[in-house]
Amino acid sequence: MINNLLRIIFNPVFNDSPEPWQIGFQDSAAPGFEGITDLHDSIFFYLVVISIGVFWVLFSVIFNFNQKTSPIVYKYSNHGTLIELIWTITPAFVLIAIAFPSFRLLYMLDEVVTPIMTIKVIGHQWYWSYEYADFINENEEAIEFDSYMVPESDLEVGQLRLLEVDNKIVVPSNSHIRLVVTSTDVIHDFAVPSLGLKIDAVPGRLNQTSFIALRPGVFRGQCSEICGVYHGFMPIAVKALPYEEFLFWLESMS
Predict the structure, then answer these.
(1) The CA-based dihedral angle spanning residues 152, 153, 155, 156, taken in that order and rounded to the nearest 10 degrees
(2) Element (H, E) at 182
(3) pLDDT range class, residue 153, cuts 50, 70, 90
(4) Is 54 left (phi over 0), alpha (psi -120 to 50) or beta?
(5) Which residue from 145, 153, 152, 154 is spatially nearest to 127, judged by alpha carbons?
(6) Is this structure's pTM higher than 0.85?
(7) Cα distance between residue 141 and residue 139, in whole Å
(8) What would the DSSP string read from start to end of 58-120?
(9) Can you list the domains of the chain with their CATH numbers?
(10) Cβ(244)–Cβ(252) below 8 Å
(11) Phi then psi for 179, rounded to 5 degrees?
């Protein structure tokens, strides 16, 4: 509730697409990605503390025990059971502290509980196909369509090069959506960073994942598995709409 109030007051602009030379995360739009960023921040804290400790020990040894300052070194200064126990047991506790939240997040991301709809995602060389198996059109057939990248020559003002598609995945916001992912030829990878999605599309195998888009918007991704010469030209775009607008879109596709 506080986050929604802050969004109304400040009306922020969210970063849902990659930017040139970007080294940070995109803005989160799903609970799974919030968990990923929180885990990253926690592990990064441990890395900073460990790095400071290691460099402090390293430079202290170099400064205090070099040939000029300490030409004669007592044997227990560089060989000791206690110090070896410390630098063996301490990293073990650090790994345990990292492992528990990691496993919790992995299980959370793998859990698919009562999704309201299922979308089948099929990777091809080099485009994506989507099938809404829960909905049928006037011909009693499932709603399905292909999604190709918009060529640079056809881009309109405001559209993004290498990220724009002719047909987006349209889903309702604040809803649990299940994705069933596969491929018809080689291994692809369906990845949308803002939604915390990254799952392999493997020929002859059905992989599943799920997500909840917490806010309306267009969230972009790309194939993240090298799949051939046009690997970099099969982007993904997920458009989250309020329920009413999603129903209008669904009616237009029927």
Answers:
(1) 150
(2) strand 176-183
(3) confident
(4) alpha
(5) 145
(6) no
(7) 5
(8) HHHHHHHSSTTT-SS--GGGT--HHHHHHHHHHHHHHHHHHHHHHHHHHHHHH---S-SEEEE
(9) 31-110 (1.10.287.90), 117-253 (2.60.40.420)
(10) no
(11) -115, 130
